Known about the structure:
The protein is of the alpha+beta class. It has 2 domains: 2-120, no CATH class; 127-274, YojJ-like (1. It has 12 helices and 7 strands. It has a 7-stranded mixed sheet, sandwiched between helices. Helix 3 runs antiparallel to helix 4 (80-91). The chain is flat and about 85 Å long. The relative contact order is 0.07.
Amino acid sequence: MIDNFTVSINNFFEQSIMAYLTTLYQYPVKLIVLIIDLVIVMYLGYKLMGIVKNSRAWQLVKGIALLIIVTWLSGIFNLKILNYILTAIMNWGVLALIVIFQPEIRRALEQLGTNKFAKFFGLEKDILTKTKEDIYKVVIAAEELSKAQVGGLIVIERDIAIKDIINTGILMNCDVSPQVLTNIFVPKTPLHDGAVIISNNKIAASACMLPLASDRDIARELGTRHRAAIGISKESDAIAIVISEETGKVSVAKDGNLIADVREDVLKKILINSIITKRYTEKNNNKNNIIQKIKDTYNNKKTKKKDNNANETEVIDDDEI
């Protein structure tokens, strides 16, 4: 009786699938809707897996996946008793999942009901706002290190990638934070030597080795950190912030030049002007110029077409006369 029931279910699913495929063949528009539907479901599944993976429920998910596979295999190899037991367990599995994943479900629903909705779907703050916030955090960290007279070297990557420099240090890939930056440079800790690299709005690595500037016109009293800052600013378009261990003064290395002893407000202006104003304004201007060129080309073609049509009309009129 169970076998007949199973056969009936299989036949039902086969007929349903064939009917659905026939509908898709007759109405191709529904195929586009199906693709969009699958993409949305896959994306939501990916985001939910990301939430679960960072929680204690990840081990339970792997256990459930193993249970599903074993149930499926027991059906294929006709292990009726085992399959019956596992199927019965699976029937109660929905209630068990609600109980087990209650904290994760609650957190997901809280995100949907708060301003974390955008973050849940990956629509976080725009890059411009995020970069500005990171600059403020770097300035705060530099001032804290300056007050404590703790040496520091922070490099902010711009358009030219410095992956080779990042690979010389300890990879971190964490959010920019004043607390993290100041803690890295605490003397006699494993990461305090070398530079911190900020790349793509993340602290990419610490304890990185930078190329030293060897120019003779650099003041002899400048230490290794200052020479390293000038060196990286010459070999790339990165900006380096140096905090002197002896004096606590903050300096900025940019385009191979060192701007020494800058105040907090000046440091903030230099970073915003160099990283945001010029960089993103130029990119936006370039995009606008390209769009404007496309519009001008289209308008010119349209005007030429109208002129040609007008000339053809005049020629016809002359012939008629």
